[in-house]
Amino acid sequence: MIDGPTKTLPRLDESLLTHMPPFSRLSRERIRQILDLASSRRYPEGQAVFEEGAEAGRFFMLLDGYIRVIRITETGEQIIALHIPPGQLFGIAKAIGRSSYPATAVTASESIVLSWPMELWDSFLSYDGFATETYKTVGTRMGEMNNRIVEMATQQVEQRVANALLRLVNQTGRKVEEGIEVDFPITRQDLSEMTATTLHTVSRLLSAWEKAGMVKSTRKHIIVCDPHALVVLGHHSSKH
Predict the structure, then answer these.
(1) Residues 182, 131: one domain?
(2) Are 188 and 69 in a shared domain?
(3) Residue 38: which residues within 8 A CB-CB, separation 6 or more?
(4) Dihedral over Cα of 214, 46, 14, 20: its sign
């Protein structure tokens, strides 16, 4: 679903990758070579970078923006499995022994993405620090996704939604006057897909939390005004 002309960006500077963990131990010369092998592209919000089940021909690094990883369940429901912040690799099917993408990656905001042909993966693994950081990332993501599955099975709805919001502000929050804002557009529908909850339930919870002064939400933005109250909610329901 990568349609329309690919907008490649002008020649990128090595300093873009020097602080990103998979590349931080490499010389500027090596980073220059890696950048020269990359395609760079700016995606608008809401565009799929790749689709679940498609042949994994490239792997990617997010320079700026946010990526939403979407899985389709056996019953055909769409679930947002996790969000990927800037500075991380994604679409690294080969790292988990797959030749196709295990999920769909959609931009949650305007994003700038580098990508390389998958046949370069093995040579990248020989770079100092690249493999260690990559497998650490894979481990973290697998853990997050497993936690989400356990949450969906065992937690009450209010607790699931509170924990999903806390995860978002922890991963992507930025400080604003009223509290901490999720740093990309997020709708009630997105929240319902993240938590396997109906849109009606999410709307009802957010309205109640707004009245209580815990959150503020507009059509596509959410601010958590009282993170501690959400933490209490996230833990409270499990004690019943």
Answers:
(1) no
(2) no
(3) 12, 61, 114, 115, 116
(4) positive
SS3 89: strand
Residue 23 backbone phi and psi in degrees, to 5: -115, 0
CATH code, domain carrying 74? 2.60.120.10
For residue 9, what pLDDT band results from cuts at 50, 70 and 90? low
* H runs (alpha helix) in 184-226: 188-195, 199-211
Residues 98 and 212 in one domain: no
- Residue 189 inside a domain? The answer is yes
pLDDT digits (tens, 9 = 90+) for 39-62: 999 999 999 999 999 999 999 999
Please state, in angstroms and rounded to a whole number, the distance separating the CA atoms of residues 133 and 38: 19
Q: What does the alpha-carbon distance between residue 118 and residue 125 come to, in Å, rounded to a whole number?
A: 12
My answer on whether 111 and 22 are in the same domain is yes
Give this prediction's pTM. Answer: 0.76
Side-by-side strand order, sheet with 39-43: 39-43, 111-117, 58-64, 89-90
Inter-residue contact 45 to 153 (CB < 8 Å): no
Taking phi over 0 as left and psi of -120 to 50 as alpha, with beta for the rest, 44 belongs to: beta
Residue that is written with structure tokens 């498609």 in the block: 54
Single out the residue of 116, 104, 110 nearest to residue 86, CA to CA. Answer: 110
Place of tokens 């002309």: 5
The domain that holds 222 is classified in CATH as: 1.10.10.10
Of 92, 67, 69, nearest to 80 by C-alpha is 69
Predicted confidence (pLDDT) at residue 240 exceeds the cutoff of 50: no
